[in-house]
Amino acid sequence: MEEKNKFRFVNDIESDIVDDSNEPDEIEEEHEEELHESGIPMNERYQRIRTVKTFIIVGAISIVGFFLIQLWQDDWTLQAIGDALFFVAFLQFSAGWIILMNNMNILAPLVYGTKTFLRMFTGRRPSQDYYNYMKMKQENPIPKFYYRVCFIAAGLTGVPAIIIILLVM
């Protein structure tokens, strides 16, 4: 019987293997990491810079939020300052928690369902089905350092808030 007409499984990998024994083995070159003038590898330096920038942005948002809460309260007592710090810490923790839950695909059914429901009112169909949406979320998560920075900033803001609230009691 000819090879073309012979029955073959789709996942039969033995017939698809090509013998490369005649080709010379490739020697892997060891690649040295590029170092910055300070002696830190460039990849690690980039991650540090990205983390510091994120801390600065979260810190600036926290300071603005603190002063907006204080202006809204129109009170600068120790109790009001403790409450404002605690609220800012709660907002930071909530932001980190939402990012973490989004990465774990816990919010995916809610977000996809809401988007699909709201698109029904405009007469548009969803751009992708639920399965592909879930796969996209798994393959492209939000980087971990964003929620880590939010949790660390919440801790750094929350500890003084709790201390101030306990002092006032």
Sum up the structure in keywords.
mainly alpha, 5 helices, 64% helix, 0% strand, flat
Q: How many strands appear in the DSSP assignment? A: 0
Q: How much is the average pLDDT?
A: 83
Low-confidence stretches: none
Major β-sheet annotation: none
- Going by helix content, strand content and strand pairing, the class is mainly alpha
Q: What's the oligomerization state?
A: single chain
Number of domains: 1
Q: For the terminal residues, how far apart are their CA atoms? A: 92 Å
What does this structure look like?
- This protein has one domain.
- The model has no long low-confidence stretch (mean pLDDT 83).
- It is mainly alpha-helical.
- α1 crosses α2 (78-103) and α1 (42-73) packs parallel to α5 (144-168).
- It has helices at 42-73, 78-103, 108-122, 130-139, 144-168.
- It is flat and about 85 Å long.
- The chain is built from 5 helices and no strands.
Sequence-ordered SSE layout with sheet pairings:
Layout: H1 42-73, H2 78-103, H3 108-122, H4 130-139, H5 144-168
Give the gist of this structure.
The protein has 169 residues and is an all-alpha fold.
